[in-house]
Amino acid sequence: MTLFFFDINDGGHAIHDDTGTELLNRDEARKAALAVLAPIARDNLPDNLGRPVTVTVRDGTKRPIFRASLVFSEGWID
Amino acid sequence: MPEDMERLSHVVSDPFVVSAREDLIHHGANPEFVHLVLRGMACRYKILPDGGRAIVALMLPGDICDLNIAILGHMDHSIGTLTDCEIVRIPRSTIEDLLDNYPRIRRALFWATLVDEAILRQWLVNMGRRRADHQMAHLFCELHMRLQAVGQLHDSFMPLTQEELGDILGISSVHAQRVVSSLRHSGLINVQASRVSVMDFDALSTFAGFEEDYLHLGDTGPARSPPGAADAT
Question: Is residue A59 part of a domain?
Fold first, then answer.
């Protein structure tokens, strides 16, 4: 198991993860990062719709290794 | 009642210590004992097909873990410790004796079972219909009240890791970590070494929309007799 850190910026405020989460490998860390985007974006509804939710994964040495974002796109069409 | 107290002190007279993260009973087992928590925190959980764990109840000091087996037979879930625990093992025959011969204890056990069910109902509502931050705040309010009710709110710290919180709330560990951070950022809770304390209970309960009625902490007393009925106590 390896320690990974997940910094999350939901458009409202940024959270720097100093606790970390133990995961099997980088691929599991990527999956965990992707899986957390939608629930956090949903928690924010209907605020902060225009701003992306971004998660940055850092490895055990605190070096960023992966980043993913989710952004809602919306607008009246009539 | 003195005879009830005497019987109960005999029942809890031989506790043993179990380390954190040990199973007390496995899913499918057909145990001859019911477990009672005297100290620490245990949980009722199920393992999912993908290997994940869903925690569906927390047992605190004074809580019986598995009264189910006294009636239902085999376990349809597992029970494990979260922290170091002091546990009492009560033989099935003792439970039957308590149910058959001690009406006030029977009533108390029935009460405990109904409250367990009420808590489960509340968790179901929270999991399905509340945002994760409100859900987690609600859990902390509940634990705060339950620990306080049994005089175990030591420094008001609750020993729960982000992984355990995720398994309780049905969210990922990373999501749990993010929610803990945001509650801490808002000044509602404090976190030290995977232990959570409530900083401002009133603010936290307002944030969570917490109403304690489902815990039934105030109505543990004797039966309320219907008008005209003989004294049921």
Answer: no
